[in-house]
Amino acid sequence: MISFEPDDEQKMLRETLENFSTNVIRKAAHDCEEKGEVPEDLVKKGWELGLIMSNIPETCGGAGMKRSAVTGAIAVEALAWGDLSIAMHVLSPALVAYPILESGTEEQKQKYLPQFCSDAFKPATVALVEPRMFFDASQLTTKAVREGDEYVLNGDKCLVPLANKADLFLVFAATTQGIGLAGVDGFIIEKDTYGIEIKEKEKNMGLKALETFEVSLSDCHIPIANKLGGDEKGGTFLRFLNRSRVALAAAGTGMGRAALEYSLNYAKERVAFGEPIASRQAIAFMLAEMAIEVDATRLLAWEAAWKIDRSEDCSKEAYLAKKYAQDMVLMVADRSVQILGGHGYIREHPVEMYLRNGRGFTTFEGLLMV
Amino acid sequence: MIDFELSAGTKMTKKLFHQFVDSSFRPLSREFDEEEHKDPADLIHSIHELMKGGGMRGMGSMAGGGEEGAEKKEGKPKRPKEQNLMGVILAEELFWGDAGLALAMPGPGLGGAAVQATGTPEQKERIMKRFTGDVPAYGAMAITEPGCGSDTSAVSTTATLDKKTNEWILNGEKIFVTMGKRATETYDGFVVVWATVDRKAGRAGIKPFIVEKGTPGMKVTKLEHKMGIRASDTASMVFEDCRIPYNNILGTAEVAVDKEKTEGFKGVMKTFDATRPFVAAMAIGVARAAYDFVRETLDQEGIQIRYGAPINQLTVLEQDVLEMEVNMKAARLLLWRAAWMLDRGEKNNLEASMSKAKAGMVGTKVTQKAVEILGPLGYSRKLLVEKFMRDAKINDIFEGTGQIQLLVIARNILGYTRKELK
């Protein structure tokens, strides 16, 4: 039966994470953005929330809770509402843990999942996006060619979060040409493997606190045992992509809501021509439309997430949710700068950061996971 | 638990409604659009027969939801908890079929919604039972005047109490009365007239009055020639010393007459809260009709729309079609949320306005884009797509314009009064 109400656990989780966002993330966000890094103690506090290990089975050392994409969407929204870059940093291990949880062979699960259940933050990351104008997840230029009992990877990746610190990489490459997403596979690569090189830290328009890197694969030999999902043909990448698109739509909802609230509060305070600017229709109507679009994005993300939880194909819904979200965040973030006028242009306020982050959503793939 | 699954009953009824309108509305669409004031009498009577029999309950009614209505009085079990949700889902199918014909169907309509929102239990029982009666009946609402539309507080039709005869005397002019002629001349019915008992009292003076078909002093002066929804009659009406019994004032007479209380005006607002989701459903239904036609045509032409391509690699056509699709989905989910809240008895002012604002915009954009995509085919009256665009436009306007919706939303999220945000 139709319902838009999260259950009690989800409500509690949302509250906990919004408190974390308010009390921890937001207090650090500005400095993190300016300095281009997230302090270790914040990462530690984020790890202590236990989000990632909660879904790992008890046999692998986790809390064994049933995984839910809807719950994940609620969690991602709450953290992104705090700060997008910090949320991506804190949740980066999920980029590897969850695909292994969902698609890994028994050996892969036994070998790697316990690493995400210790007291220490497990640095792990995904390499998907490629540094070219017409990057297309279904037509990767990073290739994996089978040679005996190995795959040989070659290619260039960009927007790889925390690559300099990662122990573990999940690298996506095309194993079969001409069949789109089904021809893409994930490869679990441990750091210091010959052939994977972390290049210089990237300088991006936004996501400055996240620390992303270009990574190159050059004659990188990977045992077939490290191909995610073993013999499974063609499903692992689609599932990864769908879940990451839902996550990005949820994150967009969180950041969009932050931008909306910030500009709403500003508009009520800022007086011009004798009254708050919020009393003028030009501003009020912008805010009203922003509110509609944030709510609409959330519902689209939830519907796609709900289908994932029912093991129903949601490629269309996930794609459309992310598409809608990327338009929404740009519109909302742009308007938030506009509403703050000259002050919106100054880095003391977060709105210009929302816009710099917001513009990236059309490019972001695989930076978050539900 | 968050859930997007429709109940089996709703799914089945939705399918039935769809088949029904596809086979009985669509073949008539062009005829009743071209011949504007022709009355689809056969269709009206056959719908009425279905409604009488308990089938298609609430078909054509703008706001069957919110209250149990006549069905409960007959001793039938209370409706399932998804009443409003089901209502908007079925409404979307009706309007997908034909917006004008759907509005022309007998039923409580806007007038009935006003009765449900403001009437006493006795009034509701007395007035609403005709909708399951032997002849097709209509409930119309007369609120807009030549001088006031969005500003409902500026109503200038007066209601003066004749203490000697214990009657109200209505004087004034109303325009844009949906079903005004069918409700008061062609078929059976009534019109709810919003009039002021004291202009100086502003909002507090505005009250709703029932005027039954055939009451002397009420006259339909013309039927509008409209851009779209032509099968729906839109009447101008004049009230000249129109006398109605004292008890025809909706609501408790004492409260209703109290010049200090704004109960009457709040009643107007409450009526719109209940009808707003159905107007959103209408916009989405018409938009979907246009979208479905575009998709079918593209299929026939062998043109594929890819889901998954990066945005900088979409063709313009793909971008347009995907935008249409996702915006309709967004509007529909916002609508379902608003209806779901109504079913839970939750105040849904903000959410209903959001859904109407979005749906109105989407209806306009999707239908206009559909005509564009179809090129010369879209422009021709040989196909229904141009009609969908003409039918859709009104959704951004009636039952509260899109701008008024944005005002309602803005005041809500800002916590502002009318004085603080005009």
CATH fold type of the largest domain in chain B: Butyryl-CoA Dehydrogenase, subunit A, domain 3
Distance between the termini of chain A: 23 Å
Number of strands of chain A: 9
Helix content of chain B: 40-55%
Order of helices and strands of chain B: HHHHHHHHEEEHEEEEHHHHHHH
Pick out the low-confidence regions of chain A. none
CATH architecture of the largest domain in chain B: Up-down Bundle
CATH class of the largest domain in chain B: Mainly Alpha
- Biggest pleated-sheet summary of chain A: 4 strands, antiparallel
Strand proportion of chain B: 5-15%
**CATH-level-4 superfamily name of the largest domain in chain B:** Butyryl-CoA Dehydrogenase, subunit A, domain 3
Largest interface: A-B, 48 and 45 residues
Could you explain how this protein is built, in words?
The complex is a heterodimer of chains A (370) and B (422). Chain A has 370 residues and is of the alpha+beta class. Chain A has 3 domains: 8-116, Acyl-CoA dehydrogenase/oxidase, N-terminal domain (Butyryl-Coa Dehydrogenase, subunit A, domain 1), CATH 1.10.540; 124-226, Butyryl-CoA Dehydrogenase, subunit A, domain 2, CATH 2.40.110.10; 236-362, Butyryl-CoA Dehydrogenase, subunit A, domain 3 (Up-down Bundle), CATH 1.20.140. Chain A is built from 12 helices and 9 strands. A 4-stranded antiparallel beta sheet of chain A has the order 2-3-7-6, with no helix packed on it. In chain A, helix 2 (40-48) packs across helix 5 (84-91), helix 9 (281-309) runs antiparallel to helix 10 and helix 10 (315-339) runs antiparallel to helix 12 (351-358). The radius of gyration of chain A is 20 Å and the shape is globular. In chain A, 57% of the residues are buried. The mean pLDDT of chain A is 97. Chain B has 422 residues and is α+β, with helices and mostly antiparallel strands. Chain B folds into 3 domains: 8-107, Acyl-CoA dehydrogenase/oxidase, N-terminal domain (Butyryl-Coa Dehydrogenase, subunit A, domain 1), CATH 1.10.540.10; 137-260, Butyryl-CoA Dehydrogenase, subunit A, domain 2 (Beta Barrel); 266-414, Up-down Bundle (Butyryl-CoA Dehydrogenase, subunit A, domain 3). In chain B, the strands form 2 sheets. A 4-stranded antiparallel beta sheet of chain B has the order 2-3-7-6, with helices on one face. In chain B, helix 11 (263-301) packs antiparallel against helix 12 (316-343). The longest helix of chain B is centred in the C-terminal third of the chain and has 39 residues, at 263-301. Chain B is globular and about 75 Å long. At the A-B interface, helix 8, helix 9 and helix 10 of A face helix 12, helix 13 and helix 16 of B.
